[in-house]
Design goal:
- The chain is mainly α.
- The protein folds into 2 domains: about 1-180; about 185-315, no CATH class.
- It contains 11 helices and 2 strands, in the order αββαααααααααα.
- The chain has helices at about 1-30, 50-60, 65-80, 85-105, 115-130, 130-145, 155-180, 185-210, 220-230, 230-250, 260-320, and strands at about 35-40, 40-45.
- It has a two-stranded antiparallel ribbon with strand order 1-2.
- α4 (about 85-105) runs antiparallel to α6, α5 (about 115-130) runs antiparallel to α7 (about 155-180) and α9 (about 220-230) packs parallel to α11 (about 260-320).
- The longest helix has about 60 residues, at about 260-320.
- The radius of gyration is 27 Å and the shape is globular.
- This is MASE1 domain-containing protein.
- It is a multi-pass membrane protein.
- Keywords: Cell membrane, Membrane, Transmembrane, Transmembrane helix.
- It comes from Streptomyces cavernicola.
- Pfam families: MASE1.
């Protein structure tokens, strides 16, 4: 039995790492569909593999890191032949999610993101801080090998860093929430969710494709989802809006007409960041308040039950006619 258990654990870890590699590669190919050019270098406004990597490490543990490295190698191999310099990118893409998970665990991050502190930790530690590693190693490697001019370092570094951070902010919460058990929605909320879906399908493409720059119309939709429904719904809306905005930026239509590549990237990333932060932080705040309200209500119900039992206990002697209930102490005279 012991030998079987020892064999089962490495096999399970290997299968999990293989699944992570496949998901990382699939997410990478999807992310490349929205690639943009900045300073003659192709970058992605949203890099979903970072979100997949952080979620996988949080759920399965840091032992699946070889799957991340293998997935990163497969993505690079699908674009060009693997060179020794590719090891720098693979290392950076592996170390950054590991740093994110270590930082999140250090502050007690919860996978269901039910507290505002969880949302803030994911933003500042998991995304903004940890992704400095991948951006610095990726762009720095190109600079050291002579593939990148020194004048182009900071624009590319900023685009790389924000793209990796957006992957964490938009993809990681969705994957974590898909695995977390949740309370079922009431029937009325399902109807409201359907209305939200219909409004999003109609409004988001209009806001993204309109030449009048109507992207701001998406934020009331995100606020509606955060206040009335759940974090999952608001994050789906944010990801949907970011994907359509990225498509409009790639085709230089709608709000991104007549702009240079740098201007397109700045405007797109500003919108993606604002949408992700609005959905994530507002939803986590509302979720925390709802949980606090339920805890207070439960405590009040338990206190009321205790008071009812105490009242019943005080009334029992009079109802049963115990000695002393008529003012006599029960002694013989």
């Amino acid at each position: 039995m012991v030998d079987a258990e020892r064999l089962r654990r490495p096999a399970k870890t290997a299968l999990e790492a293989l699944a992570v590699a496949v998901l990382y590669f699939a997410a990478g190919r999807l992310g490349l569909l929205g690639a943009l050019g900045v300073e003659d270098v192709v970058v992605t406004p949203i890099w979903p593999p970072t979100g997949v990597a952080v979620a996988a490490l949080l759920v399965y543990g840091v032992q699946v890191w070889p799957g991340i490295a293998a997935g990163a190698a497969l993505v690079i191999a699908s674009l060009t032949t693997l060179q020794p310099t590719a090891l720098i990118n693979i290392t950076g893409n592996t170390l950054a999610p590991l740093c994110a998970v270590l930082l999140l665990r250090r502050v007690g991050f919860r996978l269901d993101i039910t507290r505002l502190r969880d949302g803030l930790a994911l933003v500042f530690l998991g995304a903004l801080a940890a992704m400095l590693v991948s951006a610095t190693m990726g762009v720095g490697g190109q600079l050291l090998t002579g593939d990148l001019a020194s004048d182009d370092f900071w624009p590319l570094w900023l685009a790389w860093w924000v793209g990796d951070a957006m992957g964490v902010l938009l993809v990681t919460p969705l994957l974590l929430l898909l695995l977390a058990p949740t309370r079922p929605l009431a029937i009325g909320r399902w109807k409201e969710r359907g209305c939200l879906f219909l409004v999003a399908v109609a409004l988001v493409p209009l806001a993204a494709d309109s030449p009048m720059s109507l992207l701001f119309l998406i934020f009331p939709l995100l606020i509606w989802a955060a206040l009335r429904l759940r974090l999952f719904d608001s994050m789906v809306c944010a990801l949907f809006a970011s994907v359509l905005a990225t498509f409009a930026a790639n085709t230089e239509t709608g709000a991104f007409m007549h702009m240079s590549n740098v201007e397109v990237m700045v405007k797109l990333q500003a919108f993606n960041g604002a949408a992700a932060l609005t959905a994530l932080l507002l939803s986590s705040l509302v979720t925390e308040q709802r949980a606090t309200r339920r805890s207070v209500q439960q405590a009040c119900d338990e206190l009321a039950e205790v008071l009812d039992h105490l009242s019943a206990g005080e009334a029992m002697p009079e109802e049963a006619g115990w000695p002393g209930s008529d003012g006599n102490d029960g002694t013989r005279t």
